[in-house]
């Protein structure tokens, strides 16, 4: 078997660049230092009025010299993704305007937000909002169209970074970032590209999204102490904390990376996905899709479960998710479960960005042989008998990491990442 081919004869996929934007800061160095220290990025929302809201906390990204609160969600997605990609390309030693492969962008669905809806309504008042009137009111609002068109974010990024071919923008709920990475891996494995730019980004901390999740009883209401609100796997957990950010991974075939003398940060050894089509927001209680996604990823990597040294959990902090992930872990690993921890205890749930952000943190865990902690673990849940790396980071020998992303509607993607060769 070639040194550049995996157990199935496919090109080995290397990670040569990483970039991060989260509520903990901009850049890999600041993010990783904060995560290892167990520092929370959750804070009281200052972006919009909080009157009558049950949840008033989130993981917002504050950029130096920029008022991100004045941007709409897709503008924030574009800005966060740009910053993450610029850092990843710099890490990989690549030129910004000439990337030798496609862009795979994981992002939330774009919709018209309330300020723009009010603008449209003002143009038709007092006319009843019939379809012809709405159509006429939108005439001339080209700026709104450019912002809201789903493909526009990917097109802007592709033009900026000089990626090849049509950019792919996708959304698979909370698995979106991991799905973008999987698409990049598959394109390289098929020989269709030598490299891929995989980005997961989200900027939807805005009133309507917050209210929607609140109506689902999915959000924590521990408003009095924001840093203590996200409590994955802990007995008193009461929901996730909505957040935002972005991550970018430069993926290359190992042969391409070696030929240009790039430093390899990690290897994308396996991808696994499985959906259950059970419910719009809930997973099937039997955990079948979660279990299968983990097993598929491990098998795709050519490994046995015992070769996984650490699991970067989906770990949202909702009562149901953490129980389901525990069930899946026991089904896959039996009584020999590896340590598992949740970055969301510190950065919140970054939704469409989560799978990519957590993949970057997995690469860093492999690089430094350190397991980031699950903070706010004060009262263990008797039903969760896993080693969740409570409260304090831990030195450990790590060769392979399983990174889990379980999305609304039963969309599940898992990645196996190995250390640099």
UniProtKB/TrEMBL annotation:
Q: Which BP terms does GO give this entry?
A: fatty acid biosynthetic process
Q: Which residues cross the membrane?
A: 12-35
Domain Ketosynthase family 3 (KS3) as annotated: residue spans:
10-419
Keywords tagged on the record:
Membrane, Transferase, Transmembrane, Transmembrane helix
Lineage top rank: taxon = Bacteria
Q: Which PROSITE patterns does this one have?
A: KS3_2
Q: Which residues form a coiled coil?
A: none
Part of which pathway?
Lipid metabolism; fatty acid biosynthesis
**Cellular component aspect of the GO annotation:** cytosol
Looking up SMART domains in the UniProt record yields: PKS_KS (SM00825)
Q: What's the protein called, per UniProt?
A: Beta-ketoacyl-ACP synthase
Question: Origin organism of this chain?
Answer: Falsiroseomonas bella
